[in-house]
Structures are given as C-alpha cells and as structure tokens.
Amino acid sequence: METGIRVLLLAALATLCSGCASLHRLWPFHHKTKDPAAIARSATDAAAADTAEQQAVPPTVIEPEVERRKIKVPKIRSSNFELGGYFGELSVEDFGANPVKGVRVTYHVTEDFFLQGDYGQSRAGKTSYETLAGNVQLLSDAERRYTYYNLSLGYNFLPGESFVGRSRAYTSSFYLLGGVGSTKFAGDQKFTVNFGAGYQILPTRWLAIHIEAQDMVFRSDLLGVDRLKNNLGAHIGASVYF
Amino acid sequence: MHRSTERARLPALLLLLALPFAAPPVVHAATRELAQVFVAEPFLELHTGPGRGFPVAQVVARGESIDVVLQRTSWFLVRTERGYEGWASEADMARARLADGSPFAFNHGDREGFRDHRWEGGILTGAYGGATLVEGFAARSLTEHLKLEIDAGQFLGNLSNGYVVDLGLNHVFAPQWRFSPFVTLGLGYERSEPKATLVQPIVQNLQTAYEGIGGRLYLARRFYVRGEYRHHTVFTHTDFNEVKQEWKLGFAFFY
C-alpha cells in the first residue's frame, strides 16, 4: 500500500511538472526565444515588404529651386517693300520726247528677284507732220495725255559696292527688268510689254536711288500702219524701304 | 510753259537725291526691343549688303551676342556688341543660338513654306475672251488645301477693253508636291468698254461665274510659277449668257 501511494504521488508530481513546462510562456519573467522557422519566415516577409515599399515610392530627385529662364524672341521687323517715285524723259514714238513722272512699288522676294509695279504719266508732243504742216492737230489735248502701268519681274545682278571718295562705300547693284502692262494714249488703251535695266545705290539701308532706262512696246495703227511702237524712257528716282 | 516748269524741277530733285550721300552712315540707337542671338559657329560673317555679292567686312566670334535689327529677303541686318552693323545670311543665322541654347528659329521660304503658308500673290498674263489679259492676284490660305483668292485684271482687245475682278476658292490637291494641281470656283465682275470706233459704244457692267483648273510649280525660295484655265459664264442682260475662256500664266510668291 505504501508503495502504491508513493507511485501515485510521484505520477501526480510528474504530471504537474510537465504541465508547468507547458505553461512556461505564461510566466512573466520568461524571455521569449523565437522559433528559427518563424524567424526565417518573418525575415522573408520583411524583405518582401521592403521591396514593395521601394517599388511603391519613386526615388526622390533633388530639384533645384531655380526657375528656368524663358526666352521670348521679339518679332523681327522685315523690310522687303520699296515705295518711291521717279522723274525723267520719255520718248513717245513719232511724238517726241517729253518729261515723265511716276510712282512705283517693289516687293523683294529674294535677294535676286523682285516684283515691281509702276504707274507713270507723260504728255506726247507733236509729230513731225504736225510741226511742218502748221495748223494741223492729229490729237486733241486730252488724247496727248500718256499714262501707263507695268507689272514687272526684276533680277538683281552685279551686286557690290560703289565708292564715293576715299572713305565712303555704298551698296549698289545693276538690275534687269521685264514685264507686261497697259498704255493709255490717243484715246485707246494698248497691251504693253516693257523691258529695261537700271542701277541702284543705297546711301542708307532704307533709301535707294535708282537710274533706270526702259522700253515700252505696244502695237498701234494710229498713223495708218499697224506696227509696234517703241517708247524709250529714262528716269531717276528715289524709293524708301519699309 | 508746262515743259519749262517740269524741267526746272529736275535740278531741285537731283539736289534732294544727293542729300543722303552727304550724311555719313550712322549706327542708329536702339529704340525697340531687338532679338538677341549668340554665335555658335567659330565665326559669323557680316556682309556690307543683303546679298552674296557684297563683301564680308566683319566677323563675329563664337559666343558673342548680336542683336537682329531687321530682315530683308534672306538676310538679317545685325548689330554687334561693339555697335557695328552688317548683314548675315539666313543660312549662317540658322546656326545661331538663343540665350537658352535653343536654335534661332525664323520663317524662311522653302518647300515647307510652299506647302503651308498664309499669303500669296503674283502677276499673271494671258488671254480673256480673245483679249490680252494683265492681272494681279492675292490669296489667303484657309487650310493647306483651301485658299480664298481675289484677282483683279485688265483685258485689252481689238473690239473692247475692260476690267475683271474675281473672288473665289482654290482647292490645291497636293500642296506638298513640287507641282501641285488645283481647281477653282468663284464669282466675278466684268466691266467691258467697247472701242470708240464702234457705233454707239455701251459700257457694260456684268456679273460672272467661273470654274477652272490650274497648276503651281515651285521654283525656289518663295517663288513659284502658276498657270491656269478658267471657264467664265457672263450673265448678260439678254436671254443668253455669254461664255468666255481665260488662260493665264505668271509668277507668284508666298509668305
């Protein structure tokens, strides 16, 4: 009997000891030691979280707090038009040479080519027959009025400098000119072809002086025979670039 | 009396023309804001005039700044830091830089400009109803393909002279091609003045309508050649309308 009781008590003690061992985590002074598998698992989880965090947040770049200077280019003025006037002498075939005056506008398309429109007025004189015959008038005063316009294409050639004295040089060029237009004379209006050449010099960059000679040709039967009439003119003028 | 008065004006005119030569060329003070660019090539050549034939008088070194005073055709009048003014070519200026390092951009006439531009104009000659025609035109681009055009011309014939004004639309089929065909449609006005030798000449002011076809051929820079045929219907005061054929050829430019 004593042996039976002793065995029972020892069995109860062993049971209680094992129960205490299983309850050691409840003991407040127990120092936790992590399970290696849990440690490995938590490390993996942490690495994954770090990667996700790195992917979510872009790398920060230090932006200089300096405003970039904005360049606004002012509009560049163009100066391709020329407006001017001229004065000279025009020889109206069969009617003598007489003063002519006119205005012209030019558009410089390229450095070589330009388009030009000009309008001029003159007055025809007397034919040799009228002068010799005395009191004979082939045309009335109004019919002797000679007006024309030309639309021409010009070509600058031989550009260079002209020297005035020892210390002054001005830009200059020769140019050729040809075009079409109309002439109103002797009560009729005729299709006119014009061609000529000129020389221009620029004392300043905005002013040009021209010397020009042109022939204006049209067909007329005014004096009984239908033929081409050549009307040669030469003039000097000035124009302003704008 | 008239001639003597005219001749008396000649010396005065000559004196007036000579005046500008008396004053030395001066550098004008800047009165408006000018575009400033920097030379990016080893040097920039400055010519004495706006053309390749004018001599080079100065050079501007790399890095120096220049002010752009004005543009004439394909040349720029520029002013250096030291106040010298000279003409630089468009090709050289295209290599210059702005203060922020970006290239100096500007509008220059080329094939791209031929395709897409705002304005064009030109002079044409041909025939209108058997009479010789002299005409000028101006057009405004609405799109690359569509243009609103106004033409004004004078026709000079054996039987009558007169004026025509047309307003219409042009449709350009392939503006990017060197040769681009187009069709045109519009309304017009015709003033016909019969020659005084005919019995009882009557000046007629008539409305017209037209349709036509033509072509544009790019030459160089801002230039192109234009040829066109138009079929005009002239609305007369009688029971029958009149038909007039028109063809014309000429030079035109765009910008």
Please give a structural write-up:
The complex is a heterodimer of chains A (242) and B (255). Chain A has 242 residues and is of the alpha+beta class. Chain A has a domain at 81-241: Beta Barrel (Porin), CATH 2.40.160. In chain A, 20% of the residues lie in helices and 50% in strands. Chain A contains three helices and nine strands. Chain A has helices spanning 2-22, 36-56, 128-133, and strands at 77-78, 81-91, 97-108, 113-123, 145-164, 168-185, 188-204, 207-220, 227-241. In chain A, strands 2-3-4-5-6-7-8-9 form an eight-stranded antiparallel beta barrel. In chain A, β7 (188-204) and β8 form a beta hairpin. The longest helix of chain A has 21 residues, at 2-22. The radius of gyration of chain A is 53 Å and the shape is rod-shaped. Chain A starts with a helix and ends with a strand. The model of chain A is unreliable at 19-23 (pLDDT under 50). Chain B is mainly beta. Chain B folds into two domains: 26-108, SH3 Domains (SH3 type barrels, Roll), CATH 2.30.30; 113-254, Porin, CATH 2.40.160. Chain B has three helices and 14 strands. In chain B, the strands form three sheets. An eight-stranded antiparallel β-barrel of chain B has the order 7-8-9-10-11-12-13-14. In chain B, strands 1-4-5-6 form a four-stranded antiparallel β-sheet. Chain B is elongated. Chain B starts with a helix and ends with a strand. Residues 23-30 of chain B have low confidence and may be disordered. The interface between A and B is large, with 56 and 61 residues. β1 of chain A pairs parallel with β4 of chain B.
